[in-house]
Structures are given as C-alpha cells and as structure tokens.
Amino acid sequence: MKMKLHPIKIITAILVIFLLNNIVDMTEVCAAEDNKNEMDILLVENIDIQEVSSLIQKLDSDINITEYEEVNLIHVEYPNTITSSEIANNENIKKYIEISGFLPEIVVDPIDLGSISSDSISVENEELDSASSVTNEQIFKRLSWHVNEVTGDGKSLELSSGNNTKIAIIDSGVDYNHPYLKGKINLKNAKSYVDSDSSILDYNTHGTMITGIIAQLAPDATITPYKVLDASSGESLWTINALIDAVNDGNDIINMSLGTYKYTNKENEKLIINAYKRALRFARNNNVLVVASAGNYSLDLDSQYEVNNILHLPGGVSDVYTVSAVSNKKLASYSNHGYSVDYCAPGGDLVYENGYLDITACMYVLYPTYIDNGLATIGIPQGYTFSYGTSLSTAIVSAGLADILSYCKDNYKFYKVSDVENILKAGANDLGEKGKDSLYGIGEIDVYSSLQQADDLILGSIEKDSDTTYTYHNDTMSLRYSITSEYENNYQVEIAVTNTTKETIHNWEIVYNTDDVIESIWNGKASQADGYTVVKNNGYNQDIKSGETVIFGYIAVKEDEINIPNEFNFTNYYSITPANYEINYRIDNQWDNGYIASIIITNTSDVIIEDWKLDFEFEENIDTLWGANILNHDDNQYTIINNPSNYNILPGESVTFSFTVTNTKGEQEPGYFELLSTVTE
Prior knowledge:
Layout: E1 2-3, E2 9-10, H1 12-22, E3 24-29, E4 38-43, H2 49-57, E5 64-68, E6 73-77, H3 84-88, E7 97-101, E8 105-110, E9 121-122, H4 126-129, E10 134-135, H5 136-142, H6 145-151, H7 155-159, E11 166-171, E12 191-192, H8 206-217, E13 222-227, E14 233-235, H9 236-248, E15 253-256, E16 260-263, H10 270-285, E17 289-293, H11 301-308, E18 310-313, E19 321-327, E20 330-331, E21 341-346, E22 352-353, E23 356-358, E24 363-366, E25 384-387, H12 390-411, H13 417-427, H14 447-458, E26 461-464, E27 469-473, E28 477-487, E29 490-499, E30 509-512, E31 517-522, E32 525-529, E33 532-536, E34 549-557, E35 568-570, E36 573-576, E37 581-591, E38 594-603, E39 613-617, E40 622-626, E41 629-634, E42 637-641, E43 654-662, E44 671-679
Parallel strand pairs: 9-23, 11-13, 11-15, 12-13, 15-17, 17-19, 19-21
Antiparallel strand pairs: 1-10, 2-9, 3-8, 4-6, 4-7, 5-6, 8-14, 16-18, 19-20, 22-23, 24-25, 26-27, 27-28, 28-29, 29-34, 30-33, 30-35, 31-34, 32-33, 36-44, 37-38, 38-43, 39-42, 39-44, 40-43, 41-42
Helix pairs in contact: 8-12, 9-10, 12-13, 12-14, 13-14
C-alpha cells in the first residue's frame, strides 16, 4: 500500500481520544476476586517444594497445586470444603510459609493526560513533505527519529543488528502477522498465560508497539512474546511464571515494559514484592538481563519510597535495569525518576510548535492490524499509531543490549555478560549531573558509541616497553608481560596482573592468545587449546582486590619466535552453583532485644564449591558479621560473600558465618537461600 501524507491539522478532542486509547501504563492492583478459591504461597527456605505440596494435598484430595520451584512459590486451588486460612495455619505447613495471599490482577490503566489547551495539532514532516508517495514501511522508517538518536543515524546497525541473541517480551502478545513483523517472531517458544486464550495475538495493542521498536533496533534478534495480558487485564502470577519461563527458555534479555506500585509496610503487598524479587534474582543469577520501565506518572520514586513506603516494581528493585524516558535530551514530562533509574532512552513527549501540538514528537509505532487505530481521518494507515512512554524507552534499551551482546558473540570468544554491561555503560551520554543521577541514571544509551569503544574495553591496548616487556590495558586490568630469560627453544615469562576495577575479582582465571606450549608454571594452573592459553589461580591467590596485583610465571617452548599475546581477558563470573548443598540456621545467643545467629553452608556434593556467595531474604537488620562479608543489602535481600579464610567449600565440608541483630523484629529467620559460585570457561 502506498499513501500520500500531507501536513494536516486536527482538533484536540481527536488527539485526546487517540492518546487515551493508545498510550498506556501497565499497573497492577491488589484486587483478587472474592469468588476465587485460590491462594499463592511463598515458602521460607530451600526445602523440598514437593514435600510442602504433598502436605497441602493431604488436607483435601481435591486441592490442585502448581509449583514454581525456581522461586519457591506455589499456587493453590482449593474446593469449598476447605479455606485458605485452614491451609495457611495448619501446624505442619505454616512453619514453611513466609507469606501467603493472592497475587493481584494486572490491569491496563490509561495515563491521565490532563488538559491540552491547543485546539489543533500538526504532523508536518520535512522528509515526508518532499516525497510524493511512500510505502507504509518507508514512513515507519522515516518517522523513527528514536532509532537514529541511539544508533548514530543507523550506523550501529551496520556493525550489529542483534543476530544470535534472544529477547523475551513479557507483555500483551503481538500481531505476528503484521507486515513489518512477519517472520520475525519466534512462535515455537511463545506462550500465552491468559486463561481461555491460548493465542499470542495482541488485543491490548501495547505488546505490538514494544515488539515493533525492538524489531527496528535489533532486526536480526530472535523475539519471543510471553503474553500475560488480555485486552484489559491479567494476573501477576502469569507475569512471574513468564519471567521464569523466559529464563529457562534460554533468552538473553527480558523486556518488561510494565510496572506496579506497592506499599512495603503492608503485609498483604509483601507477597508480590518478594515474588518479583525472587524471580528477578533468578534471572540475574542465570546471567539473563532484565530491562523494565520507570513508569509514567512524573513521580519521584525515591520520595515515594522514603515518605510513603511505596515501591515501584519491577523497575525500582535490584537485578533489573530501570529505564526513564527523555525527549530532546531532557527528562520527559511524564517520566518517573529516582536513583533506581539506570539508563534513559527516547520516549517521545507532548511538544508544541507555533501553537500546534507536534504529534511527530511522539513515537511512530506499530499497532495491531486487526484493531482500528482511530486515525484514518488524519491519514495514518492501519497497523501504525503514535505513542510515548517509558515502556517504549525500555524497548530501546533492550534492543540496544541485544546489539551489543550480538557484537560480543561475533567478536570475542571469551566475553561475559558483564562485558556487555560495561560496553553499554561506556557509550552512554551523561545528560544530568556528572555520573549516575536520579533523572537519567548513567545516561542516554548510544549503541553506536558503545560499539566504537568495545574493542578497547574488551581487547584492550598493548604497548611495547622494550624488546622483552609489554604492557596491556583493558577495562578490568593492567598487565605486564615480561620475558625474563630465553634459551634454545625455551623462554621464561613473568606476568603481573593488576585489578583496575573498584571491586574484588574473585577466583580469577585469565585467557590469552598464544599456543606456545607451557612446560611448567608457578602461582597458577594452565590449560591450552585452539590457540588460547587459560591460566587459573592456584587457590591461595584466587582473589585480586581492587588495586592489587597477582604474579604468575611459566616456562614455554617456542617454535621460531616467541608468540607474544595481544589479547587478555578474565573469564570467571558468578552463577548458580551446580553442586548440592545444605543451609542450616541457628541462634547461638540471645537477649531481650537482640541475638547472635549463625548460618552454616555444607557441601553435600563431590565437587568443590569455588569462591561461594550466598543470597537470602532476611527481615532483620544485621549489625555486625564475621566469617564472611556483606556484599549487598537491599531491603530484605542480603548477599554474603566469603572471606580469605573460607574461599572454597570442599566436598563434605562446611563453612560458618555469624552475625548479631539488635532491635530485633521478633527473631525473623532468614530464608530463600541461593548459593552461587564462580564459573570459569
């Protein structure tokens, strides 16, 4: 279809109707239906979830249970012969329950645009004015100023377009027959969680908008929709389920252009807060990047949290990238903000030019072809519309991450997810106060700038200091490579590696490109294959603190000349440990308003758990801790990491760390433990 688009004006009333129909913010409300005999239960510890399910089913044979083992969540459907209270308060069951209740509905809530004083709008566009006729896809491309803004006018797409990456979109489905999307959607793994609707088709419109933006910026990525909304609402449980499935399906990136606001001091709302936190942590610990919107109510999220105890989810908590929206390099009028914001991206806005509302300052997006867009009278073809919001900004960041990840897969054999994150960060344009701020986070993403800096960050640079000494730098290390002696067919090398990051590098392993055979090595262990040498720490030197240096050396055999490496990388990262383990908790001493407690980790497997790290939930505030270190504390989420005396847990052995709690809330026990260890390639 071809269409001639002229400059036009239209009364504001039409604009308001169109925007209210098409610009939405997804919020969740705590409104369970009274007639539903259903409940959701978060379990407190890493117990056998099937054991708890069995205990519940013994109460009534007609009880149906769905288990979400990854987050220790169970969904219970029970008959009229029993009540939720009888289940939750059963003596054999209640000791395993952290929180019970019902995860709330998801509804589509239109943004309140307020009054618009102008009585007309304009869709004038210089490029379109000069064209006598253009196709719908050409219009889509020409009006995609947001793509140009983050890709260097499309130059980044010449370097990377998302090939060999997988993006999950948790939303309202998609019009997969849309001419622009046809053949770009992975229907094999696509799922609908909506009751009585197994279709992936989008009857809400939001999911199609998000998918279109991602398809523009990462056209070669594999896009999989996970439908959790029908035309107007859905269930939070579906969202949690979709997040878990998206991780288990092998997606690299999960886009969640949705949000909710919950009171942290209300017991009935802690269920959804903790369920989201667990699911997001599950994704992060599996090295899956989750991107979520900041929200569209112009709220200061920090103030809402500090004054009103309101928390924004999922953007606003740990283990997710939260995105605000900008327009013309400034925070969009509607965008939420707060220190939880990590990045910003174009989102469109209401902009007036010469008394007219310039609708092209909004973003031109896809729309389901089987739903009337209501814009035929102003010449906008079916299948397209205008919109704005942090949801759209979030899609841009997700696609940008996919392009960077694809570039890493194509160019760096030993890349890590943290490399992708560092490349994104390096290219971001700092728009606000220097450094990370509450409006723009680290800054507005610029995929082209990021990719231009990628080689320097990952491959680094090498300088020849002398005939026998070379210095190498990348974003994590400074390395000195020194040939200390050379004789016949052998030579001796000393390598000094300095950690230039702000964090400790745990259980270090380094890889570099040389195939000269190593005959002997000290202060490390070597393996060689396919032209690369991998050197791993020797146990006693496995951590490199910020600014500190480790030294190892070896004797190698040369052929004609010494094969001088020019690429060095750390390869180790944290992931969920594959080893079996047990966690035990005990109270060692207590007094009126406090106590001393210990957590014991036992390795029940036959492999070493290397450089362990423990995540858990705990409602108390830990005052002092010994035998380990607190790496992170966010609300009720703790991350504890080993200290030099107990790096590794040998098979059959245990490590113990202890802590004090004062001003106790009533001996709250920690729960939902997850043990991580470093993985090396």
